[in-house]
Amino acid sequence: MLATDVTRLASRLPEVVEGAHNGNPDFRLAGRIFATLWLEEERLVVRLTPADIATLDEEAPGLLTPIEGAWGRRGWTNLDLWDADEAFVGLVLLAAWRRLAPALLDDESP
Predict the structure, then answer these.
(1) What is the CATH number of domain 3-106?
(2) DSSP for residue 81
(3) Which of 28, 30, 44, 83 has its CA 20 to 30 A from that of 5?
(4) Average pLDDT value for the chain
């Protein structure tokens, strides 16, 4: 999976704005980051709930790994892009987006 594919998938979600975080592209909803692309490392970092992580891990075991330390305890999770297909990345982005989406936007989700 390429970074351009991730950008395309993220931009399909309602009200998403692309920004930059530590020199890396990120995706925001209402000003809050829900995903960041680490281009050099070819990984996506997303913020998920424990329930989302469990569900997604059943879909594709071992692809998601929590970030170490406090960030990981807050739900920030790594996804190596080389190992993931488009359908799975789309599910991960949607789960992270929904974590931030207001109820009104969530009704419009793809």
Answers:
(1) 3.90.1150.30
(2) G
(3) 30
(4) 90
